[in-house]
Structure formats: C-alpha cells, structure tokens
Amino acid sequence: MNIRYVDAHCHVQFPQYDADRSPLIERMREQGIAGIVVGCDLDSSHKAVALAEKHEHLYASVGLHPNDADEGFDAAAYQALAEHPKVVAIGECGLDFFRPREVNEDTKRAQKDLFREHIELAVTLDKPLIIHARPSKGTEDAYRDLLELLREAKAAHPRLSGDVHFFVGSGAVAEELLALGFTVSFTAVITFARDYDTVIRSTPLSGILSETDAPYVAPAARRGERNDPLAVIDVVAKIAEIRGEDPEAVRAALLANAERVFALRAG
Fold first, then answer.
1. Which of 14, 73, 168, 209 is deepest in the core (most CB within 10 A)?
2. What is the arithmetic mean of pLDDT over 44-68?
3. Residue 48 is part of a domain; what is its CATH number?
4. Torsion region of 162: left, alpha or beta (phi above 0 gives left; psi -120 to 50 gives alpha)
C-alpha cells in the first residue's frame, strides 16, 4: 500500500464504528491513509491490536487514559500487548486537569504516577509515547506539569520521545516540547476554530503531526457528525493553508514526520 497520510490518533475500535468499521477501513486503504488506533484502557487496547493485526495500514498504541488512573495499571498485561510488532507507541497516557469533577493534589499525584508507569514501559520497549494533556480552563497547568515530568524522564532516558496529541497549548509550550524531542499533533478542530493558527504557523513543520481523534471533532464540512480518519486529509490541507505553504510539500513532510516518530515502514 502506498501511504500518503497518517492519522496519528484515532479510535476506530470504538463502538461508534460497529455498523461500518470494515468499509471505513477499506476506504482508508483506498485513499492511502494509515491510522494509529489508540487504546484508552485494557479492553480498547486489545481491540486496537486486533485491528492492527488484521489490516496492513493500521497500527496500534496501548495505554490507560489519565482519567482512569483509579483503575490501576496492569503493567504486565500492557507490556504483553505492547510487545506485538504492530504496536508502535505507548498511550494514550498523560495528564487531564479539565475533566475530573475535582482536581486536587491526590488526583494529580495519581495521574502522574500512572504516567510514570507508561514512561517506564515506553523506555523498556523503546517505543514512543502518545500523550494526552488537557489543562484546566484558561490555564496551561497540565502542560507545565507534563514538561516537568518529561524533563525528569529525558534526563534518565535520552531516547524517550513521542507525540502530544490534540495540542491546545501555546507556541512557547510547543517549543519546549520540541526541544525535548516530542512532536505536537492537530485535529480537525483547526478547520473551524482559529485559536490554533498562531501555533501552527510558529511551530517548525518537522514538529507537527496530523490526527483526527476520531470519532470526535469532525471537520467543518461535517460538524456535529461522527468523525473518521478520512478527515486527516482535511487536517493536512488546513495546516498547509494556515502556514501558507504548498499542500503537497506539507503532506509529504507530515507523512515523513509520522514515519519517523512511530518507526513506520515507508509506503
């Protein structure tokens, strides 16, 4: 298959696709779209690996979402899954200070401890992280704590890398993440919200990935509908438009970035 796009973060294993998963995955193949199917807990991670095993153009990531930190992390079970050759990353993992009903020191401590366990697994298997970081409203608190944790981890494990998905931070935060060897990725929210334009323009193209976070945040043309990885085409086109750069050059660069970060075989 000739890969032209990589959706660096999607959830096509979710029940929203139960009615049409196979034809959707076939349409991805026809349009040259590879997808990283991201697990949020043990069950969805198992399903991600099963899909990646079945389809050449799908890959998997396994992890436990920070909002489920109280579930406990079965490190042995996740490692057994992560050793599969189609698993290209560890996560979705990280920090979420937006959604919990109450964010206190205990919440933050539990999420940080869980994130450290994912880092340990990523280091053990030499695989990148897929990071979820969502700050509380009007702040960058989750990003500041994330940067502190990553600096600590990088000091001990210089090869550690990964992507910070659905990036909503400032250009300064993006710059700090790139300096640590991480990328940031953008979703189809950029097709209808202008809040991200400045960061997209100021971040070096080599530090950007494209994603959909499907089934969430459909592009402008399909607002309010279920999203899918086909929308990564819209995301790439919008990144090129915002940056004022050649669409084909941007497409090729973002593809190369994803292949580098996740050690994907070149199409």
1. 209
2. 97
3. 3.20.20.140
4. left
